[in-house]
Amino acid sequence: MMKSIQEAEKKISQCRLLFQKQEQLSQSILTSSLIDSLYRRYELCKRKLDCTEQFRLNYYLRQHFGQQSDEFNLAKVSFSPTIIVHASIHVFNKEHLRLLSRGPTYVPPYQMAKKRNLAKNYKQLQHDLNRLFVKSNVNMIQSMFLQKQIKDLYMEMFSMPILSQSIHERAHYEQQLIEQIQNDLKRFNLILRRTHDQQNVFYLGDRNSFEQLSQEFMLQTDLFEIDMTIDKENVQATRDYLTNKIKLMNCEFENIFVNTTKYKDELKKINVVIDKVELPYLYFLPDLSKQPLLNVKPMMMTTQYSATYRLEKFLNQLLQPVIDIHQQGRIFHSGTDFLEKFHNYIDQYDRLHSTTNLVTITINNFHHLTPHHILLSTLLDFFVKYYHLPIVENIHITKIVRLTSLFLHNNRFYYDGKIYRFLKGGPSNSGLIETLSNIYLNRMDNFLINQSSTKQNELYGRCQNQIFFTWNQSLNELEQILKSMKSDYHHLSFDIHIGKNLNYLDLYLENHNGILYSRVHHQHNQQPYTLPYISSKGNSIRTYSHWLRSSLLRAIRYCTSIEDFNQERIYLEMTYLANGYSIDFIDKHIQHFLKFFDAKSLQQLPLDQGAYKKIRHRLFNFMREQRQHKEKKQESFKKNRRFHLSYIYDNVGPKSRFNKKLREILSKHVQLPNTTFENNKLQLDIRTKTQHSLNSLLSGQRPSHPIINKKIN
Fold first, then answer.
1. Could you tell me if 404 and 485 lie in one domain?
2. pLDDT at 640 over 60
3. Are residues 475 and 349 both part of a single domain?
4. Residue 518 backbone zone (phi > 0: left; psi -120 to 50: alpha; other: beta)
5. What does the alpha-carbon distance between residue 590 and residue 577 come to, in Å, rounded to a whole number?
6. Does some domain include residue 267?
């Protein structure tokens, strides 16, 4: 099907070139009536090609979905990616399934007006403004005046949005469908969850079977231990127990920082505000990577109000720069970063020969590598062997280790009527756990580096749990090194691949007779033509617009061949078409991308590999500029010169006008302290958040237990 689209594009291009030639000749030899006939003929051919292309696309996708096995049946609903149905029985009709096929990211329209809850929706912006006023030293009277002025503006602009009849009817109809789906999920004891692969796809299954797999995981795992069992009689006792644990944490902070006057700022950053604490909870997502078998993966829901959030943020700001400096040059931050370093290695050392092997090592359970006491001893050992200084930002390393111990031993969460505590690692969304895992794996990195790059000028690096290095020596020697590594780290599980071609991150790599060939790699066990899952906290329309741009950038950086880039560009267009985006939306963003990067030649046929190579080189330079811009932006946030502001927006209302007026009000009344005239301009990053997505409305992943739905204290 990809080939048929390419052929259609070539035919259109040929017709266009032929028409242009005929048009030039017509100026001297053709009559106006003949020119008009030729033009109508050209338009007719173009429409036929478009119809053929759309038919083949429709036919291909339907046939593709129809080839799945019975165990992994995909309901054939419309053009969009379909939900994955494992339920033995359900009564969802075509309209229900069509709505679910929009995926867990989809946000039904016009929820704000139905709830008439603008005052509640304003609270997020109010919180952000209060933080801005405090950091900008705005006095209380002026702060109250500005809050009232901005709130009145918000209520005025968004209270009476102009809504078309079609949008209103659609919103009402979809709300009815959602209520019917919610009732049927309960009635037939079904479970609806997004898939673990972070794609915008729903999984529909039998609740009993899914919960049985979840319970088996909890019984067999060694990652957690039961801290307390909750019943109807001891709910308040459980709250008291958790409150006392938090109080003990706060007391221990003061024991660590004995001089409370000297460490006043540090204590303010890490002390837990007990009456605001929310208990994290565990839930499971379906893992279909080994289809038709179903596995489940645990996920942790934490917020900025969890007991360890402030401590984690404080410690990670101390430790991450230390490990980043030590591991500089051997950490890959992304696939693009890896590829840039690989190209630099090839250009600098000229070590990629026809006999060079590529090696990847994947370490499983990156966030749960080892028990806490080993993580702590590894942290102390790292300070002694590699840091060589007794303090980090005026805090002694023994204090840092004690604080880290508090963090590790107080990560509690709720699941199925019990309070659990981590025994290995911590939440997978924790930046500090990632930093501690990097410190733990530092010794293994050093072992492999000493065996490879230091002696033989090999490329070595790691992106989280995925290691990559080149190998120019004998495979027997490599096997001995890997055998020794497995022996030293026998408690870890490894997936190792060696060869001239393999996959690393989202890249396909091939050593083609000493020349590096690469392109984008799509997982074969993932449903094709799907967009990534976007959290309900973000704005999916804006995020998907940016994702198309970043995916095109990735395609140019990854694909060494212009033919592969063209294939990936078509794949992206098909993905957006299959997800309901208009051809105008897609064409607008692609044309903007090509114009911005001066890459119009990528659409010209025949494809020019030489011009593509120059564009690719230019975009690698752009990546470095982009990284520098990001660092400057982060520095502005740290220095309180740039601020995040966000509010809930339902894609209905004068967002642009409100943002403009908001900037005008704040720029006029807020002056940054301790800045020169040149850089005292207030920088605002205004973002909108959507209302409830289908995932939050239908997944039911949040427990209904009172220990979760009320504050701990």
1. yes
2. no
3. yes
4. beta
5. 13
6. yes
Question: How many C-beta neighbours within 10 Å does residue 464 have?
Answer: 17
Residues 583, 456 share a domain: no
Q: Residue 262, class by beta-carbon neighbours within 10 Å (0-12 exposed, 13-18 middle, 19+ buried)?
A: exposed
Are 700 and 271 spatial neighbours (Cβ–Cβ below 8 Å)?
A: no
Q: Is residue 650 scored above 90 in pLDDT?
A: no
On whether residue 127 sits in a domain, the answer given is: no
201 burial class (0-12, 13-18, 19+ CB within 10 angstroms)?
Answer: buried
Confidence of residue 138 (pLDDT cuts 50, 70, 90): confident
Under a CB-based contact definition with an 8 Å cutoff, are residues 397 and 383 in contact?
yes
Tens digit of pLDDT for each residue in 95-126?
A: 999 999 999 998 887 775 544 567 777 888 99
Task: Say whether both 489 and 604 belong to one domain.
Answer: no
Q: pTM of the full predicted structure? A: 0.82
> Where would I find the H helices in 327-474?
335-349, 372-382, 397-409, 431-451, 453-456
Confidence at residue 270, expressed as pLDDT on a 0 to 100 scale: 95
Q: What's the average model confidence in pLDDT over 293-320?
A: 94
**484 and 575 fall within a common domain:** no
What residue type is 455 in one-letter code?
K
Considering the domain architecture, whether residues 356 and 480 belong to the same structural domain is answered as: yes
Query: Which domain range does residue 50 map to?
Result: 2-67
Burial letters 354-385, b for 16+ CB under 10 A, else e:
eebbbbbbebebbbbbbebeebbebbeebbee
- Same structural domain, 552 and 409: no
What number of other Cβ atoms are within 10 A of residue 390's Cβ?
10
Beta-carbon neighbour count of residue 213 at 10 Å? 15
Identify the bridge partners of residue 688 per DSSP, sorted by sequence position: 647
Say yes or no: 473 and 379 in one domain: yes
Name the 3-class secondary structure at 435: helix
Higher per-residue pLDDT: 503 or 58: 503
Confidence of residue 603 (pLDDT cuts 50, 70, 90): confident
Torsion of CA 425, 427, 432, 435, to 10 degrees: 60
Top-confidence residue, 88 or 346: 346
What's residue 89's pLDDT? 83
